[in-house]
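Hello,

Our lab assistant flagged a job as stuck in the queue for most of the afternoon. It eventually completed. Since we weren't sure the result was trustworthy after the delay, we are filing this so someone can double-check. Below is the sequence as submitted and the structure that was eventually returned. Let us know if re-running is recommended.
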Amino acid sequence: MSEIKVDIISNADGTERLDLCKAWVTFEAVGTVSILDSFNISSVSDISTGDFNVIFDTDFIDTNYTVIGMSMKSANNQITTAGHFATTKTVGNHGIATRTSSSGAAADPDFIYVGAWGRQS
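-- returned structure --
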């Protein structure tokens, strides 16, 4: 199998491609947070039940980037949702909040999946 390595993929006019995911992470959220796989993520911290902070390796140029998150809890088929809490959205990190779909209570899911798109410095 061949491998292609590049630092930057650009449009023909040399501008950066904004449609590529700039950072992503899959992590276990129960007990001690454990990153299972990631790209451009330096760490994930557990703030409190249902609240996490994802720290990027490379900062975004502003806070206009987009973050999408999903979460999964397998026990009792509970569904948790992952969203963001903007009080911790900076160019270098983003807060993630997970809540149960039934009551909206803070909950630690088994796994959280996060992706971020935008312009980076």
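-- support follow-up --
The delay was a queue issue, not a problem with the job. The result is valid. The chain has a mean pLDDT of 84. The first strand starts at residue 23 and ends at 28.
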